[in-house]
Amino acid sequence: MRDxxxxxxxxxxxxxxxxxxxxxxxxxxxxEVSPGHASPPxxxxxxxxxxxxxxxxxxxxxxxxxxxxxxxxGGGTFWTWRDLMYGVAANLDPQNYYRLARAAFAEMAxxxxxxxxxxxxxxxxxxxxxxxxxxxxxxxxxAAARDAGVRLTLLDTLYLHGGFAPxxxxxxxxxxPEQARFGDGSVQAWIRRVEDLxxxxxxxxxxxxxxxxxxxxxxxxxxxxxxxxARERAMPLHVHVSEQPAENEACLEVHGRTPTAVLAGxxxxxxxxxxxxxxxxxxxxxxxxGGAGAHCCICPTTERDLADGIGPSQSLxxxxxxxxxxxxxxxxxxxxxxxxxxxxxxxxxxxxxGVHPTETLADIATINGYRSLGWKDGGAISxxxxxxxxxxxxxxxxxxxxxxxxxxxxxxxxxxxxxxxNLVVGGRPVVVGGTHVSVDVASxxxxxxxxxxxx
Length: 455
Known about the structure:
By secondary structure, the protein is an alpha/beta fold. The chain has two domains: 3-53 and 380-441, Urease, subunit C, domain 1; 55-372, Alpha-Beta Barrel (TIM Barrel), CATH 3.20.20.140. The chain is built from 15 helices and 18 strands. An eight-stranded mixed sheet has the order 3-2-1-4-15-16-17-18. The protein has an eight-stranded parallel sheet with strand order 5-6-7-10-11-12-13-14. The longest helix is centred in the N-terminal third of the chain and has 17 residues, at 94-110. The chain starts with a strand and ends with a helix. The mean pLDDT is 96.
């Protein structure tokens, strides 16, 4: 039997919302979308406000949620923040990570997020020995996303070195003790483990992608092997790139090239590649990324929090790149905020407004993220697409007084995650009336974070 959802307003693409849209769902797919319904049919589920495709969080580190409120004040840099992050990573085990990740993913659902790209690099026991199941952490994350009701692309991450070491024979330092549990020892061992993980992941809501942590953590030869392996299996490949100037400077000293140029030389750039951050790029880097048709995942709340800088989003788009967004360290979880911050950052850099049109920002928050994570049939309210959509209430003080022609502008530039009323993923309600259908999110975050921080 089909389910029918009546949307007071729905964004179907373009600069304007459409009133009175009926969405018909069969199983996990949208089968019909029809505007022109001034009032809801008797059997339809009403979605007041503006309905959008479900939002996409293209870059997440779920355990970083435990850092919120503990790392933001005072001074320091990305590198000192990283030491605090390692402290939480040391306390994780597959059981407490399941609880923390389920709560974090459920918080994302409350924010209207239907799919998450989890950049996953905590693989083994402290010290680096594998668990009896070498993919115990990955299995925990897949279960956490399933139980929170969101789709997951588990971006299993290759992590081999402790950073650049100019002057050393290889140009790389060994893993630090606090990084030992991230590494598999070699790209071949990583491939064997991830092949087993891929074989174990079942069901329509989760899939496995690939990630290279960064050029500072993986050498060019290993990057090339990982990229070829992922491409042969049609897996998305994600990489941290040029988040910090120090990364670029060390890479130039070791390789004589920027991180982007190293990735290009290793054959790691293409339409299925997503480069995360891309904050400090040369003009040549931008041209190479755009020419490859790669995605760039911008994470403005993290990049602001860590004083990373503002990336060249306008130049990347002009060169041919596609932008998406992620909450990364979860300083906040709000993809609407991430999307508008792409535009607001561009305004700061260019002293010009309207660098990215509102509908482009909506694409950044929705369809672009779905595609970067390998869900080519998601991120749009259209027949044949995945039945993933979210409704944003227009009854808060932030959105009071908005008229219909300007509703998309209002939601993109003024709404917050707390304005999300409903989320449907795969045809199943996950959030109803602002409440998660199965997880007491605040309570579970409290208990899960307390266990990790106090461990």
